[in-house]
Structures are given as C-alpha cells and as structure tokens.
Amino acid sequence: MITSQKKQTALFFIGLILVTSSVYSQTKSDFSIYNWYDNVAGKGNLDFNTGKIHTNPYKSIDKSTLFLKSDSFEIGTLNYDGNLYFEIPLKYDILRDILVLNPSEGSAVTAISLNQDKVDSFLIFNKNFVKINKEQYNNTNFSTGYYEIVKYSENQAFYIKHSKSLEKRVKDDGIYYSFKDNNTFYFDLDKKLYAINSKKDIIKLFPSKKEEINNFYASNNTIRKTDFDQFMKNLLQSVTTSLFNKEQ
Questions:
Q1: What single string gives the DSSP state of each residue in 152-219?
Q2: Residues 156-176: pLDDT tens digits?
C-alpha cells in the first residue's frame, strides 16, 4: 500500500504544489498529473478508501432525498488529509452532514462515510464545500460541519449551510419520509461571521446599499422563489461588486 507520506514525497519531486486552499483552481495540468499518480498507485490503495459503511435507513415517499441533489454518486474533487484527488465518486448526506464515497474496488452501490476530521474540502455539482470548525468564529449558533462557500474577495465570503427537514409518514405498507431543504446563510466580513436569513439582515450588513438591495429583490422575484440559494449568491455578488467599484 502506498502511504500518504510517500505520495506527498512523489508529488514533491515531480514539482507539484499541493492545493489546500478552500477554493479550487483545477488546471488541466493539475488534473492530468494527479490522475496519473492515482492510476499508478491504484485508487483502491488511496488513503480515503477506508471507513464505516454508510447506510440510508430512510425510505422516501416522493422524489425528495437526504442527499445533495441526487441519491446517485457524482464525480467530484476531494481534498482529504492534505491530499487532492480528482474524479472521485461522491455524494453528500445533508441530513447527517456526512460526505460519502464509492470506493474504487466496491460495487456501484457501496458507500463509505468519510472521516469529517480529515476532509478539508470537496467539489460536487459545481459547488465548493469546506469543512469549518465552530472555534473559527465567535458565534454560538455556528457549528462545525461542511459549508458551501462562495468567495467574493480576500475578506468576504458567503457560506451556505445545507440542511434538511425530515417529515415522517406512516402508511399501510410501512414508514416513509419526505425531505425538504432548510438552508441557512452566513457572511464572513473581515473574519467576523454574520447570519443573513432575511432582507433585513442583508441591509443591516450593507446599510449603504439598501436601495440596491430592495431593487434587486423587486427585479429578481422569480429566481428568489425557485432557487433561493442562487438568488442569495447573485445578490451578494452584486452588492460586493458595487462596493468594490465604489472604493476604486
């Protein structure tokens, strides 16, 4: 078995700089070299192919799921224990905040729960996630876990804490469940964390942009109702860009 230390040494000697940033920069060269190494080493021997079997005891009554977007594995990127891996089959159990991996030597349905302490970040469905410890911020409502991140500048970042509410339904043939998104939002401004779950919270954070925020709500009502996560990303992108341009 090829150890993590040996892998890091090999990567060093072929001139790679290990990417540990929470925001990925996946160049074609990076992609090719990392996958070349993984193929030589044998993906079954990689560090993350150990862990507890992940089970799903919840039978859905509808098309809802406890995972991010789909019950199926999605090819993604994983930063695990200081090592970056491409083309890894992943899915994210939002209900229990567990990142799940399909091991290379397992069947298509085999699922392993990854150790959260060793997961630095991951990319799935074109969404960047980072593991953040609650000690990083002085906020009693903030908990350790995986957060989707959108970086707007060096000192501004938007976090989405994906979560699910669970509704139990008893039918003649058994117990079923329905899942509903129940996300919360945070904004990191100069290393201070603010909860932003309403228009009032955003205006309080950016009082000089009150008119722009109100106008954005009024002119983007459709996406606000159909994809609130994307609405918030777009709104904060607009506000932070406007502030940056004003400072120039």
A1: EETTEEEEEE--EEEEEEEETTEEEEEEEE--EEEEEETTEEEE--SHHHHHHHSGGGHHHHHHHHHH
A2: 999 999 999 999 988 888 899
